[in-house]
Write a structure and sequence with these properties.
four-stranded antiparallel β-sheet, alpha/beta, binds phosphoenolpyruvate, 329 residues, elongated, eight-stranded parallel barrel, 14 strands, binds manganese (II) ion
Amino acid sequence: MVKYRVFVIKENADTSRLMEKIGENSVSFRKLNLYGRTIVLIWPDPPTPITDSSIAYEAAIDGDYVLSTREWKKDNTTITVDGATIGEGFVIAAGPCSIDFDSDVEDFARSLKKAGADIIRGGAFKPRTSPFSFQGKGKQGIYILKKMKEASGLPTVSEILDPEDINSFGDVDILQIGSRNAQNFQLLRKASRAGKPVLLKRGMGNTYSEWLATADYVMEQGNGSVILCERGIRTFENSTRFTLDVGSIAKAKRESHLPVCSDPSHAAGTREMVLPLALSSIAAGSDMLLVEVHPNPTHALSDAKQQITVESLAELSKQARSLVKLLRG
Ligand code: PEP
Ligand code: MN
């Protein structure tokens, strides 16, 4: 049975008659603007099909997630931030787990760029398992990230934990939603409304379907710039920190129009495993990698075991890009 119907509206078409027809049926609806098009989503499917001259085409979608599927949008969504395009070609976001340093930040930022980073990542508000662990530098961390952006000319991504902090993220290009907050629906809605691209981590305990449904929460607020990020899930296997679900990366690339990112660092848990997991993600179709790189990994105040050096990033970038070339031409 069809659960949802998506009407993609013709450019500049008048939808008033369509909306009246929808009103005459007792169905729920959302009218959204996504990717420059008007979209009308209705559910459940009415007993008699709704037709209207304003509809360019429609899709019937039977599933637990709707807006994130290719069923209504065949082409890949691409997101451009300050010169980096995600969802077309291949990009690397690299930088520290937390910005726990404040000296030589400009040099470090430039070295990340030289080693192959297209985007700089850096945590300022950190979601730590223990309240007694380093919680990040907060606003000051965001300020340091801004200095790294200015020095390198690269766009930035940082995790937002609390919607109340949104004003601190003015200079951050991409808002990251962490694995622990993947189903914090109010945070998803509020982050969406900030109008910036959202890098959406998969909850470590979420199924593939639940992950794509979280993307629907962001898109339902009218923001289609969502990057799906696989970062490893909890399984019975504990030889790596989390189990990187490469199958879900391949599936998301097939079934969703959204760009797919892989975070090999949090799945690996140890430096040695970051490169093989990064390469396997590319083989599965990942458009982007999110890699933790620290100026002095062993002294990092969070995730010290999994952060790599700038030299290792250069090697990872070299191998990753040659694999992309080999597989995708
Ligand atoms: C991070 O990328 O900084 C992070 C905390 O990752 P995750 O939410 O995937 O654990
Ligand atoms: Mn980390």
